[in-house]
Design a protein that fits this description.
Strand content of chain A: over 45%
Largest interface: A-B, 23 and 24 residues
Shape of chain A: globular
Structural class of chain A: mainly beta
Distance between the termini of chain B: 41 Å
Oligomer: heterodimer
Helix content of chain B: under 10%
Order of helices and strands of chain A: EEEEEEEEEEE
Number of strands of chain B: 11
Radius of gyration of chain B: 13 Å
Strand content of chain B: over 45%
Shape of chain B: globular
Number of strands of chain A: 11
Chain lengths: ~110, ~110
């Protein structure tokens, strides 16, 4: 079965640079979530989209933005990168119905040097 | 505020023994409680969930127990295998909301 696809899997950027992460949800899923997981931490919710509209916002820095496109894929844009942005970024998707499971991708490792 | 937390940060069990991972939560409004397994360098993998109107649900070698009176959730893994070694997160959500994770428990299976 198709899973949530994230790219790139690994990314190294310098401070103050910009990074873009991509997420391709499971086909027919209408909702995408972005999470950030620091070393040894639990995943923290950043932002979500339902039917291409932002549906919820968590602890996402102002330097970050995201959107969901007409084909339901989503991109997380991170600017003015800081060392503390180094983390594993997960995308998850679901078909927004009560009880439906949220499935996670394998994540994108961002290292800021 | 809402939160999900775990009693034990690490757990070591002998292969073949049963494992029990515990979790406390504070948001009584959640409709679903979920257990995820995360192996090193991988994304959280859904294991099992339980709806708030249930107190027990069984899967393959796993059982989740929900005690709403004391706001406690547990994951039982029967006949623990080396492949079960991972970090386990309990999480909660309402029907149309995001998943909120609690701190993970690292399960180490001793061969």
């Amino acid at each position: 079965a198709a899973g949530v696809i994230q790219s790139p899997r690994h990314l190294i950027k310098e401070k103050r640079e910009t990074a873009t992460l991509k997420c391709y949800p499971i086909p027919r899923h209408d909702t995408v979530y972005w999470y950030q997981q620091g070393p040894g931490q639990d995943p923290q919710f950043l932002i979500s989209f339902y039917e291409k509209m932002q549906s919820d916002k968590g602890s996402i820095p102002d330097r970050f933005s995201a959107q969901q496109f007409s084909d339901y894929h989503s991109e997380l844009n991170m600017s003015s990168l800081e060392l503390g942005d180094s983390a594993l970024y997960f995308c998850a998707s679901t078909l927004l119905r009560p009880g439906n499971t949220i499935y996670f991708g394998e994540g994108s490792w961002l290292t800021v040097v | 505020g809402e939160s999900v937390g775990l009693h034990l940060p690490t757990l070591s069990v002998q292969e073949g023994d049963n494992s029990i991972i515990n979790c406390a939560y504070s948001n009584s409004a959640s409709d679903y409680f979920i257990w995820y397994k995360q192996e090193s360098g991988k994304g959280p993998q859904f294991i099992i969930d339980i709806r708030s109107n249930m107190d027990k649900r069984q899967g393959q070698r796993v059982t989740v127990l929900l005690n709403k009176t004391v706001k406690h959730l547990s994951l039982q893994i029967a006949a623990t295998q080396p492949g079960d070694s991972a970090v386990y997160f309990c999480a909660q959500k309402t029907s149309y909301d995001k998943v909120i994770f609690g701190p993970g428990t690292s399960l180490s299976v001793i061969p």
